[in-house]
Amino acid sequence: MTYTVVATDRATRSIALGTVSHSSSVLAKVLTGAGAQGHRVLVASQAFSSPALGAAVAAHALDDGDLREVPAICRASEGGGFRQVAMVTDRGGLATYTGDRCLTYAGDVVDVEAGVALAGNMLLDSGVLEAAHAAYLASTGALDERVLAALTAAGAAGGDCRGDRAAGLVTVGRHGDLHLSVDDHDRPHEELERLRVQARARAVLGSCFRWVERGCPADEVAPLTARLATAAEHDADVAVWWVVVSELAGLPRPPASAETTRSAAELVARMAVPRTDSSTKGPDDVD
Hints:
One of its GO terms (molecular function) is hydrolase activity. InterPro entries: DUF1028 (IPR010430), Ntn_hydrolases_N (IPR029055). It holds the Pfam family DUF1028. This is Putative Ntn-hydrolase superfamily protein. By secondary structure, the protein is α+β, with helices and mostly antiparallel strands. It folds into two domains: about 1-180, Aminohydrolase, N-terminal nucleophile (Ntn) domain (Glutamine Phosphoribosylpyrophosphate, subunit 1, domain 1, 4-Layer Sandwich), CATH 3.60.20.10; about 200-270. It has helices at about 25-30, 50-60, 70-75, 125-140, 145-155, 190-215, 220-230, 235-250, 260-270, and strands at about 1-10, 15-20, 30-35, 40-45, 85-90, 95-100, 105-110, 115-120, 165-170, 180.
């Protein structure tokens, strides 16, 4: 049915969850993300997924519960034998559970030293989790890259025995949050990687929006345009905003295609004109 990798970077308190399945909307089905008092937890409840169990396990972790008690919580839940759980907390905690009624091959791995846990059910064989674990350990990239490397290796080793069709990736941490989902796709791992790269490149757009909101402060222009220049090479939306920020800051226009220049000019023009449509009018306004 599903295989999931959860991982933590204890140095930065970043956490990530990646999941792949034959079933559509896999991320929406398995994910519970929760937070309290500055702490965050990500839980996958899969096999016969249960949002209620995911929420219960997350609450236990956020209440400083002993994660060694997670299997007992799962076993005691309704239908516990059919459940599978993998979870990670931003305090470096990891826990898994695989019920005895999960469809074979089903199993889980917890590597506390490496900060990673894996769980899967209805897999081709045990080699799927072994390949994922090895790929995670061999990867040296950012946390989201390492999780995706593990998922990709799991898929290459056979993945869901019915074939992989859906995938999702969630990260929470210092370098920004991601929430990406792929459904009914012939190559879900490749599509998830494309979305991951795109999302990381477009993260700079949030800085652009905040810069405009603050009135385009001059002392922030140089680092902002440097980030835009780096990301613009591979993303058309970022290229447009590189031109926009340069125009608003009174800088020379960076090299851009005619289409990018037109799009940027339209954005600048729209930002310069206050809205006057009916949604901005008060009850006493008259046309």
